[in-house]
Amino acid sequence: MNLSALQKARYAYVPKLPGMLRHGISEICVKEGLETQSVADQEKIKALFPNTYGKKEITFQKGENTSEAKKQVVGVILSGGQAPGGHNVICGLYDALKATNKENVLYGFKKGPSGLLEDDYLIFDDAYIDEYRNTGGFDIIGSGRTKLETKEQFAVAAEVCKKHGITAIVIIGGDDSNTNAAVLAEYFAANNTGVQVIGCPKTIDGDLKNEDIECSFGFDTATKTYSEVIGNIERDANSAKKYWHFIKVMGRSASHVALECALETQPNICLISEEVAAKKMSLSQIADYIADSVEKRAANGDNFGVAIIPEGVVEFVPEFSVLISEINELLAGAKADAFNALPTWKDKYAFIEQGLSKESMAVFEILPEGIQQQLFLERDPHGNVQVSLIESEKLFSALVKDKLEERRKAGTYTGKFNALHHFFGYEGRCAFPSNFDADYCYSLGYNAFMLIQYGYNGYLSKVSNLSKPAEEWIAGGMPITKMMNIERRHGEDKPVIKKALVELDGKPFKFFEAHRDQWAVETAYTYPGAIQYYGPAEVCDLTTRTLALEKGE
Amino acid sequence: MNLSALQKARYAYVPKLPGMLRHGISEICVKEGLETQSVADQEKIKALFPNTYGKKEITFQKGENTSEAKKQVVGVILSGGQAPGGHNVICGLYDALKATNKENVLYGFKKGPSGLLEDDYLIFDDAYIDEYRNTGGFDIIGSGRTKLETKEQFAVAAEVCKKHGITAIVIIGGDDSNTNAAVLAEYFAANNTGVQVIGCPKTIDGDLKNEDIECSFGFDTATKTYSEVIGNIERDANSAKKYWHFIKVMGRSASHVALECALETQPNICLISEEVAAKKMSLSQIADYIADSVEKRAANGDNFGVAIIPEGVVEFVPEFSVLISEINELLAGAKADAFNALPTWKDKYAFIEQGLSKESMAVFEILPEGIQQQLFLERDPHGNVQVSLIESEKLFSALVKDKLEERRKAGTYTGKFNALHHFFGYEGRCAFPSNFDADYCYSLGYNAFMLIQYGYNGYLSKVSNLSKPAEEWIAGGMPITKMMNIERRHGEDKPVIKKALVELDGKPFKFFEAHRDQWAVETAYTYPGAIQYYGPAEVCDLTTRTLALEKGE
Predict the structure, then answer these.
(1) A135 contact residues in B (CB cutoff 8 A)
(2) By Cβ atoms counted within 10 A, which residue in A468, A516, B288, B444 is the most buried?
(3) C-alpha distance from residue A337 to each of A383, A384, B227 (Å)
(4) Which ranges carry the Phosphofructokinase domain (chains A, B) (predicted)?
């Protein structure tokens, strides 16, 4: 392998632990806090988690280590999409485990939760771990999207743990994976397996967040990477002065990524899906909102701009959701065959016109032909529209173009409109973790082992006070059930971790709201540049604007 | 303006000058070299440049400054596409100019060469310049694509210079802009205007390169930025293990960018347009070449990969060029109206089938329908196919998919193929310049002023020995005519700077060629990470692999 200069240099980086974890394993003791309650539906959640509900939140402190001396055999799993820093969680876990007892063993289950079920693993040693320190990606053991949620799976998992003498499982994942970790923990406790389960909060989407989890790991690095390239594009727009760039960023169910990127780069436009839903905005209203900025800037002679579009925004537009349901209905089962047999798009269009409600047809009509065709021609194996494939950045630029033509005819707009399109997602999920994510992740892993060593089960590794220097971070744990409520999923009531959407009365959105009218007209771009791992602390140890604003800084 | 932490920190960076320019203006003297000849067509070029041809190459040295003490009024122009470091050329120019004589004045003509013709300018001062030190973009004065090439334009330029008492013009541009700089210099000399012209070699494409110019500025930063995100995508591919990423990178006429990115990131596939042309490859052959890698990797259980596609590659495929010519012919003038009047794509297809040669129809047939339609439906104002709009990354992934289906039927391929697409260009043209580009550009500007001060005209600011630390760089100048030859352009013989294509017997390509068979099958990715401006020299002062290989390092 031909390692890059940066990768070699990053191997030498020593991640910063929270102050109370810096005195060596023998000097880490537990301070118990209050018993916890779930955020909602307490009785129902309690009934579902009789063995793991209501436990105390804890923090670690400097003091004599009173944990039981016992050999630990731990298994770790990466679950779901990549996020920068996953390798460091495993490195921190490994280091604490080995520092506690050289005989302790760390198993890595491969390709996600399926590795546990299929007993597909490797055993970490120093040489192997050292190749992954402070690097991006999940390639250390791979990840996967298998969900651990059935009793049958749990029984298999218990068998595998028993076979290897595993005492604890660490699941590194998002909200669903941590929900499953809690259910697995309850199962293990109920069945007296003696196996503990600890979760770690991962996701670049930033939607695993609440009063306890200040941010999920990876969000910092991913948004910094997107902001780097968005800033570069802004500077290009402001130099060439002839293009409007429509930039889609990852984030299907929440717009934290888009919002953070907007706070970092101050573009002319940033859509926030949660606001679109709250205001029940139509496609036409959104297009008008963007066209207003284009028109005002053109009046100032600025025929260029940058608009950030969150990946999932169309799903938050009420009329568009209705359209999608109607299309899914229209093509359900055998009806798809009749549709597919129609020879030309014109024939198909007539079929669609007949099948959709008047309201949905009105929405369908304004879509650009490419998107219209995509909705009908590219469907998933169940025949459903693949909403995630919709190129919403192109959709909105096409709608804006139409709006501008109307305005040109009305005489209010006389500018030029040339659009370019971008989508950033895969570019940021596997970047070398920022110093913040490298430190935070290493601390989460180190801390996860301390929770194991002290016998906790169904706990989330929790590191907080993150807007302060690492020295002041607080390490501890809390029952995963604390974050849960009951939600209706696939027709069933399920205990799940509440997904954190962008709060429209939260400080980050409020800041954006207070400035966006100015940004829409002026050129107020900020150029963050590439993530720096070295240099002045204010450059290389800065965390997100979202976190800073939430913490009132 | 809300400046990023990095931008503030970069203001404090002090660019490194070549050693011989470090002793102060009063200690810079000239060493004359040999008289020069153009690279080809010497007699013709000499006849076209009677006043500026054949001058001596010069280098600067430490020694008593013997230049004439005279007030300099210099105008600077940014020409063409953005490249990181343009601001630093102007800063270096400004600093040398002011260090020589505080009374000297620097004009910046706005929005490219048109600023000179329209007398649209600003006058730089310390406060203004300081806002742009070590930043990306061309927003300091803007850029433009107006070509300075007619006698009428030159006469206007001479008038504007006379009006302001301008003694020299610095043109920062690519091969065409420097060609025009040489012609303007000759005009100014022939007409005894007393105005000098100095060129600076800019372009991220890397095609302004020869035995004198080791690299154009911006190439280093742009390719590092693309390599960062390509590396991140590689790491994502290697973690998720389920996608083939087809990544198009900028570079229409030469594949230096693609090649450098491949050398930095070691992808499975990288197409090189010059090789495609030399081997007269067909679309089908290229698709088979990529499909071979997909098939071999699938046989190893690796259903993922990364392929880099240079932006201009389809124009280098002989059969595709013929197809484009035929389409342009088929739709020329009134024939387009007949075509446009056809009601359905089916009718249009029949029209096309009748109009194309059998050979071109065979090429047309294998294209995905989206590309077929684009070729006919999206034409420029002259009715020509817009080759630059062709999404070649999608074209090749579609062709590869077809090939794999054939192989699946033949039983040689049993893998899964899911493709994702990316295009990187605007992301890198305005990044904060790497230390290399910051130093190189500042030196080019500083050096340009020394050439002015010593009375040179029609010279290129030349800084060489670039693979060594800046201390060892060599600063000087040479007549732009040295790089020229005669080429046929738009039916006329024109003196132009020879464009540097990727040399198939050059060291960078040879290195790639020696390794690519291994990279095609194995996962040999290198992850360069984000450009670093601070930290260990081997991380933050590294230049391109292309330059290192060319210099035998």
Answers:
(1) 235, 527
(2) B444
(3) 11, 14, 45
(4) 74-315
Query: Which residues of chain A are within 8 Å of residue B112 when distances are taken between CB atoms?
Result: none
User: pLDDT tens, position by position, for chain B (553 residues)?
Assistant: 699 999 999 999 999 999 999 999 999 999 999 999 999 999 999 999 999 999 999 999 999 999 999 999 999 999 999 999 999 999 999 999 999 999 999 999 999 999 999 999 999 999 999 999 999 999 999 999 999 999 999 999 999 999 999 999 999 999 999 999 999 999 999 999 999 999 999 999 999 999 889 999 999 999 999 999 999 999 999 999 999 999 999 998 899 999 999 999 999 999 999 999 999 999 999 999 999 999 999 999 999 999 999 999 999 999 999 999 999 888 887 788 888 888 888 888 999 999 999 999 999 999 998 889 888 877 777 777 888 788 999 999 999 999 999 999 999 999 999 999 999 999 999 999 999 999 999 999 999 999 999 999 999 999 999 999 999 999 999 999 999 999 988 888 999 999 999 999 999 999 999 999 999 999 999 999 999 999 999 999 989 999 999 998 7
Q: Residue A394 and residue A415: Cα distance in Å, rounded?
A: 20
Q: Which residues contact A17 (CB under 8 A, 6 or more apart)?
A: A439, A442, A443, A446, A470, A475
Q: Which two tokens stand for residue B222?
A: 């742009």
Enumerate the residues of chain B whose CB falls inside 8 A of the CB of residue A1.
524, 526
What's the rounded Cα separation, in Å, for the pair B350 and B348?
Answer: 5
> How far does CA A350 lie from the centroid of its chain?
41
Q: How confident is the model at residue A265 (pLDDT cuts 50, 70, 90)?
A: very high
**Distance (Å) from the C-alpha of residue B78 to the closest C-alpha of chain A?**
10
Whole-angstrom distance, CA of residue B472 vs CA of residue B22: 11
Sign of CA dihedral B200, B203, B209, B213: positive
| Other residues' Cβ atoms within 10 Å of the Cβ of residue B195 | 25
- What b/e string do you get for A34-57 counting C-beta neighbours within 10 Å, with b at 16 or more? eebebbebeeebeebbeebbbbeb
Domain ranges of chain A: 16-218+433-497, 219-429+506-551
A217 neighbors A437 (Cβ within 8 angstroms)? yes
Closest Cα of chain B to A56: distance in Å?
36
Architecture of domain B219-429+506-551: 3-Layer(aba) Sandwich (3.40)
Amino acid, res. B80: G
Which among B460, B452, B457 is positioned nearest to B482, based on CA atoms? Answer: B460
Q: Under 8 Å CB-to-CB from A282, ≥6 apart: which residues? A: A317, A318, A319, A363
- Residue B413 neighbours by CB under 8 Å, 6+ apart: B291, B294, B295, B298, B404, B407
Residues written for chain A: 553
Amino acid identity for residue A546 in this structure = T
Q: HSE on the CB side for A401, CA within 13 Å?
A: 17
Cα torsion at B483, B484, B489, B493 (round to 10°)?
-170
Domain A16-218+433-497 has CATH 3.40.50.450: yes
Q: Which residue ranges of B make up the annotated binding site?
A: 81, 175, 203-205, 242-243, 250-252, 311, 426-429
Cβ distance A169 to A196 under 8 Å? yes
Task: Give the C-alpha separation, B313 to B324, whole Å.
Answer: 14
Cα angle A341-A345-A351, degrees, rounded to a multiple of 5: 65
Cβ of B5 and A82 within 8 Å? Answer: no
